[in-house]
Write a structure and sequence with these properties.
The chain has about 350 residues and is mainly alpha-helical. The chain has one domain: Up-down Bundle (Rhopdopsin 7-helix transmembrane proteins), CATH 1.20.1070. Helix 5 packs parallel to helix 9, helix 10 packs antiparallel against helix 11 and helix 11 packs across helix 12. Keywords: G-protein coupled receptor, Membrane, Receptor, Transducer, Transmembrane, Transmembrane helix. Belongs to the G-protein coupled receptor 1 family. InterPro entries: GPCR-Ligand_Int (IPR052954), GPCR_Rhodpsn (IPR000276), GPCR_Rhodpsn_7TM (IPR017452). One of its GO terms (cellular component) is membrane.
Length: about 350
C-alpha cells in the first residue's frame, strides 16, 4: 500500500502538478503582460493581483511539493525538505498566496455585484484610488492571519551517528503541539476564513449577479424594439456598450464559478480530515490529494478562461506574442476590462458609455 501511495503521489504531485505549474507560470505571466498593455481600471487591477497571487502559489507548490516527489522518485536531485529544512519557511507562501487568491476572487465578485446590481454607485465605490486600498487590506489581513505558522516549527541541529556529523532537522515547537492551537486555529479559523466564509460570499454574490443579469436582459429586450427604430449612432453605441458590459461580466463570473468548483472539495476535506483518522490508501487520503490538486488547477486555469471567453484578450495576447504593435495602434480606445466609466464621443458629437472588453 505504501508503494502504491508513493507512486500515486509521484504521478499527482511529481508529474501532473509539475506540468500544471509550468503551464500556470506561462499563463499567468502572459496574462500580466497583456493586462499591462491596457489602461488601469479596478477590475483589471483585481485580475492582475489574482494572477500575481496565483503565480506565487504555483512557484511555492512546485518547490515545496512537486520537486520533493520528483527528487525522491527519480534520484536525480536532492529533496529540499531533507537537505535544507528551511524550505519550511518558503512553504508558508503556499497558504498565504492561496488565501490571497481566494479573497481576490471575492473582491472580483463584489466588483461585478456593484457593476450589475448597483451601477449608480460603482464609480464611487470602485475607483482606481480605492481598489489598491481594498487589495492592501486583504494582503495585510491574510499575512497577519498566517503569522502563527512561522512559530509552528523550528529547525534544530541533530547529530547523525552514521555520518558522525550534525544535520538540520525540522521539529514541532511546543506552540505547534498545543491542542488549542490545532483546534482553534488550524481547524476552526482556517476552515472559516480560508474556505467557508469566502465560498459562501462567492455563492451569494454569484446568485445576485446572475439575477441582476437576467433582470437587465429582460429590460434590454423590452427596449430593443425602440432602439432598432431609432437607428442613430448613439443607439448603436449604447447597444455595443451593453454587449461589452455583459461580456466582461460573463468572463469574471466564470472566473468566480470556477473558483467555487475548484475550492469546494477542499472544504469537504477539511471537515473530514479532522473528524476521523486516516492513513495511506484510505478514501480521505485520496480526497486530500485531489482537493489540493484542484486548488492548483484553479491557479492556472484563469488564463484559459480569458483566452476562450474574451476576444479582446485574444487580440491583445496575439499582438503581444507576435510583437506586433501595429494592431495596437489601429485598435479603438478600449481595454480588456472596463467598468463603463469612460465616455467616447461619437461622430454626431453625442456622448456614449464604452464598456469594451
Amino acid at each position: 500500500m505504501s508503494s502504491n501511495c508513493d507512486f500515486f503521489n509521484f504521478i499527482v504531485w511529481g508529474v501532473i502538478v509539475s506540468c500544471l505549474c509550468c503551464f500556470g507560470f506561462v499563463g499567468n505571466i502572459l496574462s500580466l503582460l497583456a493586462f499591462a498593455r491596457e489602461r488601469r481600471v479596478p477590475a483589471l487591477t483585481l485580475l492582475q493581483c489574482l494572477a500575481s497571487s496565483d503565480l506565487v502559489l504555483l512557484l511555492s507548490v512546485f518547490i515545496t511539493d512537486s520537486l520533493p516527489y520528483l527528487c525522491d522518485h527519480t534520484d536525480q536531485c536532492a529533496n529540499p525538505w531533507k537537505t535544507w529544512p528551511y524550505v519550511r519557511y518558503m512553504w508558508i507562501m503556499t497558504p498565504i498566496s492561496h488565501m490571497s487568491s481566494i479573497w481576490f476572487v471575492v473582491l472580483i465578485a463584489l466588483n461585478r455585484y456593484w457593476a450589475v446590481c448597483r451601477p449608480h454607485s460603482l464609480s464611487t465605490v470602485w475607483t482606481n484610488q480605492r481598489t489598491p486600498i481594498y487589495v492592501s487590506c486583504v494582503l495585510v489581513l491574510v499575512v497577519s492571519f498566517n503569522v502563527p505558522r512561522f512559530f509552528e516549527y523550528q529547525i534544530i541541529d541533530v547529530y547523525d551517528n552514521s555520518t558522525n556529523c550534525t544535520r538540520l532537522m525540522e521539529q514541532n515547537t511546543d506552540f505547534g503541539l498545543t491542542p488549542s492551537y490545532k483546534v482553534i486555529y488550524k481547524v476552526m479559523l482556517v476552515n472559516i476564513l480560508l474556505i467557508m466564509l469566502p465560498i459562501a460570499a462567492l455563492i451569494i454574490c454569484t446568485g445576485l449577479i446572475v439575477y441582476g443579469l437576467r433582470t437587465q436582459r429582460r429590460r434590454m429586450n423590452s427596449q430593443r424594439t425602440a432602439s432598432n427604430k431609432e437607428r442613430s449612432p448613439s443607439a448603436k453605441a449604447r447597444g455595443h456598450g451593453a454587449r461589452a458590459a455583459s461580456e466582461i461580466t460573463f468572463v469574471l463570473v466564470v472566473v468566480v464559478v470556477v473558483a467555487i468548483i475548484c475550492q469546494s472539495p477542499l472544504a469537504a476535506f477539511h471537515f473530514v480530515r479532522y473528524s476521523q483518522r486516516y492513513r495511506c490508501g484510505d478514501f480521505v487520503y485520496y480526497l486530500d490529494n485531489i482537493s489540493k490538486l484542484l486548488v492548483n488547477v484553479n491557479s492556472c486555469i484563469n488564463f484559459v478562461i480569458y483566452c476562450v471567453a474574451s476576444p479582446k484578450f485574444r487580440t491583445v495576447l496575439l499582438a503581444l506574442v507576435s510583437c506586433d504593435n501595429e494592431q495596437e495602434k489601429v485598435r479603438p480606445a478600449s481595454s480588456i476590462v472596463s467598468d463603463g466609466k469612460r465616455d467616447l464621443i461619437t461622430r454626431n458629437g453625442s456622448h456614449v458609455r464604452d464598456t469594451n472588453l
